Amino acid sequence: MTITASGANTYSWNTGPKQSTLSVSPATTTAYVVTGTNTSNGCVTKATVQVSVTACTGVDETKGEARLTVYPNPSSGELHIQADKTLKGAKMILKNLKGELILTRQIVNETELISGLLPGVYFLSVVRAGTTVLSKKVVVEQSSD
To answer: pLDDT tens digits for 61-114?
Structure first.
């Protein structure tokens, strides 16, 4: 991210650079202090910007009591999706790594089949009432045929 200071003629950041912008990508929450000086009147002002960083520990694969099993995973292009009966009527959404929609389908049976997938990594989500209730990462490998 880029932090921009304005309103002065010269700038000095606590991390060293002497320009109005500072590019940062902290791994932890970090405070950045800029000192701005107006060279025409000698006014010096400091400002602090705190960049908050929250650790990303991954995607919850299960929320609540609903269960979803995808097998085989990794697959060679055909996936069996076993959903518990609480997921009947929910929407199943499959996207590739680019976020492109590959498939959307309502869960009708406790076991669903998706076939014809090309090799790659996919994300299977189950959405009920507009809320994602389950997510699974699915890997499709090149068939050894």
So the answer is: 444 557 888 888 888 888 888 888 888 889 999 999 889 999 999 998 888 888
Task: Return d(Cα 2, Cα 14) in angstroms, integer.
Answer: 15
pLDDT digits (tens, 9 = 90+) for 23-42: 998 888 899 999 999 988 98
Which position has the token pair 């010269």? Answer: 10
Please give the structure tokens belonging to residue 39: 């060279």
Q: What DSSP character marks residue 86? A: G
Which position has the token pair 């304005």? 6
Task: Give the chain's domains with CATH numbers.
Answer: 2-51 (no CATH), 68-140 (2.60.40.10)
Whole-angstrom CA distances from 73 to 5, 10, 103, 120, 143 are 50, 57, 18, 12, 13
